[in-house]
Amino acid sequence: MNRRLSTILLLAFVIAAFASYVVYRVAGKQMHPAQPVTTTIIVAAQDLQVGTLIKEADLTTAQWVGAPPKGALLNKEAAIGRGVVSELYQGEPIFDSRLAAPGSGGGLAATIRPGMRACAVRVDDVVGVAGFVTPGMRVDVLVSGTGPGAAPAEGPKVKTLLQNIEVLSAGTNIQKDNEGKAVQVQVVNLLVTPQQAELLSLASNQTKIQLVLRNPLDTDTPNTPSVAMASVLSDSNAAPKPKPVAVKKLAPQVAPPPPPRVYLVQVYNGAKRTEEKFPEAQHQ
Predict the structure, then answer these.
(1) With 0-12 CB in 10 A as exposed, 13-18 as middle and 19+ as buried, what is 164?
(2) Which CATH class is domain 39-110?
(3) Is the pTM of this model over 0.90?
(4) Sign of CA dihedral 175, 179, 181, 184
(5) In angstroms, rounded to a whole number, what is the distance separating the alpha carbons of residues 112 and 241?
(6) What's phi and psi for 232, nearest 5 deg?
(7) Structural domain spans, the chain
(8) Nearest to residue 221, comparing CAs of 165, 163, 159?
(9) pLDDT of 213-241, one tens digit each?
């Protein structure tokens, strides 16, 4: 075998080895893809209601593929001892915005935003038991009663006192009736300003309160007038009352003056007779 042929065979062997290496690397990447980067995050071990003070048993860990979501807690120490301000479900990541500030504790007070107040309003069984109001919903507050100085014929009135109010919680509370016995009553806590809390407190003692559900996306607050019972029960189809007819006063008629009297004078001139008429002179 001459030298030229040996060179060609050696070159072919080198090219074949390089091609085999490239094919092996490409096939190896497809058969064994790179493992994605994961991050350990903190998730809820069970459902957590609003106001719950988080304990270590309420938390567990999970692997999150890729970069962790913004605001997610990465260690249990950052969540233990803080109150839940928005309901959490099992397996859901724990976000810092869903928990109360450290040191504020749990319960309903932890869900109250700065500058706001939680005002308890007693409602009837229809509103409370039917699940009509739940945390996060928006309601209008209507009050009905007889105001001071109202005419007896008008009856009670109803007025929209507050609009677009957020519901913090709804449940039962134990109060005493007129005989001192403990009874369960439906109570709804509303998130209001201090001025609105004063209005609600006064209205709850003097009038009856009714909550009206509204769409959370509807933020309009129209200025609605109060409605009296007399206008509600009035018959809109009743025949209209006859309008009084205006009587036009006529000027007094003056009787025309009587015609003047006429005097007849007969004149005889021999056998000839003539008559003359003389009207009575009018005196002014």
Answers:
(1) middle
(2) alpha beta
(3) no
(4) negative
(5) 56
(6) -70, -40
(7) 39-110, 116-230
(8) 163
(9) 888 888 888 888 877 777 776 665 555 56
